[in-house]
Amino acid sequence: MGVPGLWEVLKPASRVLPLAEIVTAHPRGHIRLAVDVSIWSFQCSAARGGENPGLRTFYFRLCRLLALGVRAVFVFDGENRPVYKRGIRKRAPSRMTRFRELAVLFGFQTWQAPGEAEAECAKLQRLGYVDAVLSDDVDCLMFGATKVYRHWGQVVGEDGKSDVSCAREYCAERIRSLCSLDAPGMQLIALMSGGDYAQTGVPACGIKTAVEAAIAGFGSDLGGTCISTEARKDWRHRLQAELSCNVAGYFSRKRKHLLLPESFPESDLVQFYSQPVTSAQERLQAVFEQTEWWPELSLQALETFCAVHLDWTGEEGQDRLRKTLCLPYLLYVSRRAQALGASNSFSHAVYVRGSKNEGGRKLRLGQSAEPGAPQIATLLG
To answer: 94: number of CA atoms within 13 Å, CB side?
Structure first.
C-alpha cells in the first residue's frame, strides 16, 4: 500500500527500536499510538482456523499492546475517502463492529475518520494527541506524520527470526536529514512514480527519477500549483526542462524521453495528498483533551465476548483466557494505578473458576494497583 519502493528509499533513515524501551523511557510511562484499523483488518484476514480467525488475531495483538503499556486510538475509514484507490472503486467503509467493540473492551479508544484513516492518524500525531502512528502504510508520512512505527513484531533480527517486541521507526527529522525528503517531496514521488491515487504516475517514470525530482525541491514548489492553472503550467515546464536538459544537475542523467502530460499534476490528485479530508482541529481538541486514557476494564465483558465470538467456552476457553489475558491485565492495572496517582498497596490475587476448592484456587501474581480495590477475583470467576 502507498508508493511501491518508497519504504526502501526511506530505510537508511529508519532504526529498529523495542517498543517496551520506548514506553519505559517516555516521561508518562506509556505511549499513545494511532492505528489505522484497515491495515490491521487486512493483515488479520490472512488468519485461518477456528471461529473468527481474523478477530482472534486482533485479540492477540490487543493483548500485546495492553502488556506493553501502549494506549492506542484505533482509527476507522470514513465515507469521504477518494472514490478510487489503487485503480479500484472503493466500497463503503466497513464498520468492523466486532473489531471496534473488542478494542473498547480492552480500554482502547476508537475514532471515526471522515475520510482516509491514515490521514486522520497523521493529523492526530501532528497535533500531539498521540506520540506516533503504528502503520505499514507509507502514506502516513506523506500526510504529514512526523513519527511512524512500521512492521511491529515483524522486524527480522540477526538470527533471521522476527522480534515480536520491536518495530522500525521512521522519523520526519531523520528522513529530512538523511534522505533529503519531506512530506511534499514524498507526495511528488507518488504523483510521478505512482501511488494509491495516481496509480500509474507519469509514463516511463520510475521511483529513482521521482526521488531525484523531490530532492531537487520540486515537491515543495508544488504546494501552490493547484491554486492557478498558470502556476501549475510554469511549474511543469520547469520540471520538464530539467528532466530533458539536466542543466542544474538534479538528475543522474537526462530524461529526454520522459514527457510530462499536459494535465500533470492533476489538481484533484494533488489535493488528495496535500489536503486530505480530516476532522476539524476544534473537534479533535474537544474530544481528545477530555479522553479517559485509563478506563477500568471489565473482565466479565471480555470473557463473554470471547465466548460468543471466538467460541472460547468451557474449561478450554477459560484456560486460553488465563494464558493470554492474565499478565497483560495485571500490568495494565498496575500502570493505571500509577497514571491515576494511586499507590501499590495490596496484593493481586487471581481466582480460577472450576478448581476443587469452593472459593477457587488463589494464585499470587505480584503487587498491584488501586488502593481499596477488590482482589481480582473477577478474572474468569
So the answer is: 10
- Please list, in sequence order, all residues whose beta carbon lies within 8 angstroms of the beta carbon of residue 64, skipping any fewer than 6 positions away: 153, 164, 328
C-alpha cell at 218: 520540486
In this prediction, residue 273 carries a pLDDT of: 87
pTM of the model: 0.86
Using CA atoms, how far residue 224 sits from 219, 229, 233, 243, in Å, is 10, 10, 12, 21
CB 58 within 8 A of CB 305: no
Residues 135-149: what's their mean pLDDT? 95
pLDDT at 372 over 60: no
Residue with cell 521511483: 207
Which residues are registered as beta bridge partners of 33?
72, 132
Distance CA 79, CA 94 (A): 10
The whole-angstrom separation of Cα 17 and Cα 40 is 20
pLDDT at 357: 38
Residue 100: all three cell numbers together: 471496534
Confirm if 135 and 36 have CB atoms less than 8 A apart.
yes
Check if the beta carbon of residue 39 is closer than 8 Å to that of residue 136: yes
| C-beta separation of 284 from 320 below 8 A | no
Give me the percent of the chain exceeding a pLDDT of 70. Answer: 82
Return the DSSP state at 49.
S
d(CA 335, CA 349): 17
Ordered strands of the 70-76 beta sheet: 15-18, 166-171, 147-150, 132-134, 31-36, 70-76, 109-112
Query: Rounded CA gap, 3 and 13, in Å?
Result: 17
Which residues have a Cβ under 8 Å from the Cβ of 43 and sit 6 or more positions away?
Answer: 57, 136
332 Cα distance to chain centroid? 21
Q: What is the CA radius of gyration of the chain?
A: 24
Decide if 134 contacts 35 (C-beta within 8 A). Answer: yes
